[in-house]
Amino acid sequence: IEMMAAGAADYDLARFGMEVFRNSPRQADLMIVAGRVSQKMAPVLRQVYDQMMEPKWVISMGVCASTGGMFNNYAIVQGVDQIVPVDVYAPGCPPSPETLMHAILTLHEQIRTGEIMKRREAGLPGITASTTGLWTPEVPVSVRLGTPK
């Protein structure tokens, strides 16, 4: 729901050129993993990631995707970063549309500065898209269209 809300009029991902959700991994450059991943789905998720063309990026959206959720269960992967390399972690349970947009903008900034490639080459983990002291980071005022309802 939060991902759909981020693409709606209040948040308008289209102004960043991100309004198109692709059904084929061969046409996508960003994978957003939302929710828990079961052990049975782990190979499928990896296969989809492998089918994506380079350069490809991954955002782990929410606590369930990042850590497997609040309950440790043998049937659930304890973090999607065990399957695919995660570039940005979007915190929250569930993360708000502002948090998702902040994660995408953080990814954009990391790509623009080349920092993300340095992190990959060094084998460092992804970064958490959060602002110190804020529970839910907002989209910067300079890129926000209107106040969310």
Mean pLDDT: 80
| Count of β-strands | 4
Assembly category? single chain
- Gyration radius (Cα, Å) is 15 Å
How much helical structure, as a percent, in the residues? 25-40%
Count the domains. Answer: 1
Order of helices and strands: HEHEHEHHE
The outline comes out as: globular
The order of strands across the largest sheet is 1-2-3-4
* Second rung of CATH, namely the architecture: 3-Layer(aba) Sandwich
Which structural class do you get from the secondary structure elements? alpha/beta
Low confidence ranges: 131-137
CATH fold topology: Rossmann fold
Percent of residues in beta strands?
5-15%
CATH class, anyone?
Alpha Beta
Q: What's the number of helices?
A: 5
| Beginning-to-end CA distance, first to last residue | 15 Å
- Main β-sheet description: 4 strands, parallel
Task: Describe, in plain words, how this protein is organized in 3D.
The structure is a single chain. With 149 residues, the chain is of the alpha/beta class. It has a single domain (2-131), classed as Rossmann fold, CATH 3.40.50.12280. The chain has helices at 2-6, 42-51, 63-67, 97-113, 115-122; strands at residues 30-34, 57-61, 88-90, 127-128. Strands 1-2-3-4 form a four-stranded parallel beta sheet. α3 (63-67) links the parallel β2 (57-61) and β3 (88-90). It is globular, with a radius of gyration of 15 Å.
